[in-house]
Specification:
Largest interface: A-B, 17 and 23 residues
Radius of gyration of chain B: 14 Å
CATH class of chain A: Alpha Beta
Shape of chain B: globular
Largest sheet of chain B: 5 strands, antiparallel
CATH superfamily of chain B: Histidine kinase-like ATPase, C-terminal domain
Oligomer: heterodimer
Number of helices of chain A: 3
Number of strands of chain A: 5
Order of helices and strands of chain B: EHHEEHHEE
Strand order of the largest sheet of chain A: 1-2-3-4-5
Largest sheet of chain A: 5 strands, mixed
CATH architecture of chain B: 2-Layer Sandwich
Structural class of chain A: alpha/beta
Helix content of chain B: 40-55%
Distance between the termini of chain B: 21 Å
CATH class of chain B: Alpha Beta
Structural class of chain B: alpha+beta
CATH architecture of chain A: 2-Layer Sandwich
Number of domains of chain B: 1
CATH topology of chain B: Heat Shock Protein 90
Distance between the termini of chain A: 24 Å
Strand content of chain B: 25-35%
CATH topology of chain A: Transcription Regulator spoIIAA
Chain lengths: 106, 132
């Protein structure tokens, strides 16, 4: 079960997306399509709210990196909020905790 | 890991919908050995990563791969046999590198041997990861 909801309007001009469920090989395609649609040409910062995201695999992490590259082309960034411990562990193992901006409070 | 072991062999279709099945299966198997809950979760992640790489790879048109679990009293090993494959096909791109990092970090043993077939081997010792 995977859900992705846009939290509009985001007052600070960023695109805020609430993720929940699992991002794995079964749901990665939907996640990628919808995320890249929302990012568009990358002219806005992206906020991902993840406290209800229970799992993400390497495919999902690869999609996030692709999204980051898009927004970085326009000097924007991807902010990731409230990661669960099991997912934070995967970010640490892969070194992505140094690549993304990970925050607790929105 | 030495001594007697139980062996479980599963032939799986290369389809995404069976990755969840194998995650649940390995969870039940390694819980039986006595791993604590955090380690069981780690093993589920590792097995899921390997199966995901196999299913999403473009290794020939073979529609199945084999998974063999060996359950010891002090740990477990798993062997994933993918016909007609190369390691580069299995772990390509950013996602492949992330998968390798995750698998290496969460297991005590991880190797890939490719000849005509690719055999991915992982192992985890019970060590201090004992439930209770």
């Amino acid at each position: 079960m995977f859900e992705m909801k846009v939290d509009n309007p985001c007052e600070n001009g960023k695109v805020r997306i609430v993720l929940s469920g699992e991002i794995d090989i079964s749901t990665a395609s939907e996640f990628k399509t919808r995320l890249y649609e929302l990012i568009g040409d990358g002219t806005k910062d992206i906020e991902l709210i993840c406290d209800r995201l229970s799992y993400i695999d390497s495919t999902g992490l690869g999609i996030l990196v692709g999204a980051l590259k898009r927004v970085k082309n326009h000097q924007n960034n991807v902010y990731i909020y409230r990661l669960r411990d099991n997912i934070r562990k995967l970010f640490r193992i892969t070194g992505l905790d140094k690549v993304f901006i990970l925050e607790e409070a929105v | 890991m030495n001594g007697n072991f139980d062996e479980i062999i599963i032939k799986l279709p290369k389809k995404a919908e069976y990755v969840g099945f194998i995650r649940l299966t390995v969870s039940g198997l390694v819980s039986k050995i006595g791993f604590d809950i955090d380690t069981v979760e780690d093993i589920k992640v590792v097995v899921s990563e390997i199966c995901t790489r196999i299913v999403s790879s473009d290794c020939d048109s073979n529609e199945y791969y084999d998974v063999k679990f060996k359950l010891f009293t002090d740990g477990f090993r798993a062997f994933f046999k993918v016909p007609n494959c190369l390691a580069d096909n299995l772990f390509e791109g950013d996602s492949g590198e992330f998968a390798k990092a995750i698998i290496s970090s969460l297991t005590d043993e991880f190797s890939i041997t490719c000849d005509d077939d690719c055999i991915i081997t992982i192992g985890k010792n019970l060590g201090d990861s004992v439930n209770g």
